[in-house]
Amino acid sequence: HLVDIESLGIPLQAQITVDEEGTHHADYLRHAWESLGTGFTPMAMKVFHESMGKRLMPGVELKASPAKLMQGHNVFGPTCIEMGALTMLKWLAGTYPKLFAMLAIDCCEVYDIDCTYSSRLPDERTARQAIQAIRGVSNGQMKGRGDDYETTAYFGAKDSRLRRLKIYLKHPEFMKQLEEAKKAGRGDLSAARTVKVLSNPDLQAWSENLLRLEVTVAKRWFNRRGISNLLNDLIRHQQALAEQGICFIQWCWEQVTKDLFAAFEGIQMRVINDEKVLAALLEKHTKQGKGRFTKEKMVGGIAVPPIFVPGKTSDAYARSLFRTYRSLKDYGWEETQASMNRASFYNHIRDICECGISKAALQKLKVSDQQNNVVPILRFVQVDFNAQRPGWYVEPTVEAA
User: Fold this and answer.
1) How far is Cα 184 from Cα 194, in angstroms, rounded to an integer?
2) Which candidate, 164, 202, 241, places its Cα nearest to that of 76?
3) How far apart are CA 397 and CA 70, in angstroms?
4) For the residues 352-361, what does the mean pLDDT come to?
5) What angle, 0 to 180 degrees and rounded to 10, lies between the N-to-C axes of helices 189-198 and 170-185?
6) CA angle, corner 261, sides to 73 and 113, nearest 5?
7) Distance between terminal CA atoms of the chain?
8) What pairs with residue 314 in β-bridges?
9) Residues 148, 222, 242, 119: what is their CA dihedral angle, to the nearest 10 degrees?
């Protein structure tokens, strides 16, 4: 199957060739992935004008976060498939009405849906420690992918046609999006509107300490469960479940994450809370530089006497003491002592004790830490489906998007 791509009213790319007479020819016309402008963030779109691979018929593929299209962010948002689809189709129709009129909308297929829920942790430090613990988890077919980052862990093959799972800290990603929108917003009205949304202090506060579990379920995953991936069928299926009090998006999420949460049963994480120790060491052992007097000088015929300029402060020694403290906690007294010069070790012990920690406590630090600070990861990673959105949230509409 093939359509005349030049008749669609869309920008095209071509491979330019030059014949023996020096004449240029445009061959292999095609449409490249394009970012369509919306009220907030762009929507990715590409026209496939011939049958290829998984596409049995020519068509258009759209990729976007419906929540971002409707409200400028995806920290939380609607779970209605119909609302998301109508918003995406609305922007396609507004950008390319001629192309849109040629589409068989009733034949729309859904290739992927992201289903995301969050767990709120006590603070960012604990959230990062949870990510570290989660990376080593595997159960059944849910295995870590290996290409993790400091605030993100991945499960499932990157190109899986069934399902994928991404676990990450929302706030760092949120602030990165804000910075990117600020840069783009200087000459882009849509980006400027996004900046206004993301600059909301209440929204920023809500994103703090959120551990996000983002499940992507694909066409094959639906089909294996007897669920049609045709858009209209999915909408009807979601509506039918809603009448029974079942959230379809939550159901998909639970089906994919249940193996992971089963694996969490035996996983423990170490909770490190050493900020008070570091603060005490910095207060006690931050050193003031010697400082110096300026030279006497004449300014406008008036003698300016020498002025004392204080030296710069240095916290290098305090942080060195903190590293010794952490070594005692991680490796114990004997191993830490063996790794250092004997005199330096005891000087560090003396100076750490000046901050109110006894030598006996330092000698038992490793054992005490293992007894008191290693806890089940499920104590922290708990998803409350009734607390996914703040009380002040007003759900957007397709018309306002």
Assistant:
1) 10
2) 202
3) 7
4) 87
5) 140
6) 40
7) 35
8) 287
9) -10
Q: Look up residue 308 and give its amino acid.
A: F
How far is CA 161 from its chain centroid?
22
Token pair of 135 as six digits: 């990376």
Three-class HEC string of the chain: CECCHHHCCCCCEEEEEECCCCCEEEEEEECCCEEECCCCCCEEEEEECECECCECCCEEEEECCHHHHHHCCCCCCCCCHHHHHHHHHHHHHHHCHHHHHCCCHHHCECCEEEEEEEEECCCHHHHHHHHHHHCCCCECCECECCCCECCEEEECCCCCCCEEEEEEEHHHHHHHHHHHHHHHHCCCHHHHHHHHHHCCHHHHHHHCCEEEEEEEEEHHHHHHCCCCCEHHHHHHHHHHHHHCCCCHHHHHHHHHHHHHHHHHCCCEEECCCCHHHHHHHHHHHCEECCCEECCCEEECCEEECCCEECCCEECHHHHHHHHHHHHHHHHCHHHHHHCCCHHHHHHHHHHHHCCCCCHHHHHCHHHHHHHHCEEEHHHCCCCCHHHCCCCCCCCCCCCCC
Q: Are 62 and 45 in contact (CB under 8 A)?
A: yes
Whose structure tokens read 């910095």? 282
Residues 325, 232: Cα–Cα separation, whole Å: 61
* Dist. CA 162–CA 229, nearest whole Å: 13
Q: Which residue's entry shows tokens 């129709």? A: 93
CA 254 to chain centroid, in Å, comes to 20
∠ CA 113-114-117, nearest 5°, is 145
Q: How many whole angstroms separate alpha carbon 309 and alpha carbon 290?
A: 9
- CA angle, 352 then 353 then 358, to 5°: 130
CB within 8 A of 7, min separation 6: which ones? Answer: none
Residue 187 pLDDT class (50, 70, 90 cuts): confident
Whether the model clears a pTM of 0.85, i.e. scores above it, the answer is no
Quote the pLDDT of residue 300: 79
- Summarised one tens digit per residue, pLDDT across range 278-299 is 888 999 999 888 888 888 888 8
Report CA-CA distances (Å) from 255 to 158, 197, 220, 386: 19, 33, 14, 18
For residue range 73-116, list pLDDT tens digits in order: 999 999 999 999 999 999 999 999 999 999 999 999 999 999 99
